[in-house]
């Protein structure tokens, strides 16, 4: 009799989705025979799902969000492993001129000149960018004509004409190939977000879940992260 492996549920931040969609999860399923159901969302919506009682086996999320989950016994802290980090960048519509964003002053000028700037309301990059606008003293001016989305890929807004500039993690901008990635934010205002993988407390002794965690933090995963604008930890 053939025994079908238990399906695993992966909750994952959007920042690593391109790496996972480009063969990393398929490779795990082919090698292990274990099917994986992946749920991709920014970290904040993922935490809301968990708070609402949705079950998962493996979680990839912003590292800083995992400590409260460990304290509540939701994840096994011994399995927490940093896998990648990414900086924030910007993209423009296909064929559009690339603004100079090489310095803080140039970046501010580009934002002020844009018809609309798109960013996410719940993503790590969008949360940071909203604070950055306040720090730069241009929040009211930029937000008065911004395209703020709840979640998803902000570069879609420059492709469909809603915005002139999209702000998001570099790896997430890559997910909309029609958009043109200009550059990372200048060093003076750059912000890196680290992502870690961990097992739920309920799955901490499950061999399949442990195998998936090892796969997502191994050499093959590292190569996939690098190909999609992520820095390996």
Automatic annotation (TrEMBL):
It comes from Streptantibioticus cattleyicolor (strain ATCC 35852 / DSM 46488 / JCM 4925 / NBRC 14057 / NRRL 8057). GO terms for molecular function: molybdate ion binding. This is Molybdate transport system substrate-binding protein. Keywords: Plasmid. Pfam families: SBP_bac_11. One of its GO terms (biological process) is molybdate ion transport.
């Amino acid at each position: 009799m053939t025994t079908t492996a238990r399906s695993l549920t992966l909750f994952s931040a959007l920042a690593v989705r391109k790496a996972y969609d480009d063969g990393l999860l398929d490779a795990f399923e082919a090698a292990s025979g274990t099917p994986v159901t992946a749920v991709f969302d920014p970290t904040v919506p993922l935490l809301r799902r968990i708070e609402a009682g949705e079950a998962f086996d493996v979680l990839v999320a912003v590292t800083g969000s995992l400590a409260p989950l460990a304290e509540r016994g939701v994840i096994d802290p011994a399995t927490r492993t940093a896998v990648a980090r990414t900086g924030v960048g910007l993209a423009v519509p296909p064929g559009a001129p690339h603004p100079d964003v090489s310095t803080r002053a140039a970046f501010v000028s580009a934002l002020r000149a844009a018809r609309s700037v798109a960013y996410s309301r719940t993503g790590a990059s969008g949360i940071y960018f909203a604070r950055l606008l306040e720090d730069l003293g241009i929040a009211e001016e930029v937000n008065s004509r911004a395209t703020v989305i709840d979640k998803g890929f902000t570069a879609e807004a420059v492709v469909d004409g809603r915005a002139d500039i999209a702000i998001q993690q570099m790896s997430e901008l890559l997910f909309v190939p029609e958009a043109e990635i200009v550059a990372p934010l200048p060093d003076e205002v750059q912000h890196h977000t680290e992502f870690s993988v961990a097992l739920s407390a309920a799955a901490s002794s499950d061999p399949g879940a442990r195998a998936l965690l090892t796969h997502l933090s191994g050499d093959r995963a590292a190569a996939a992260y690098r190909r999609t604008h992520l820095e390996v930890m």
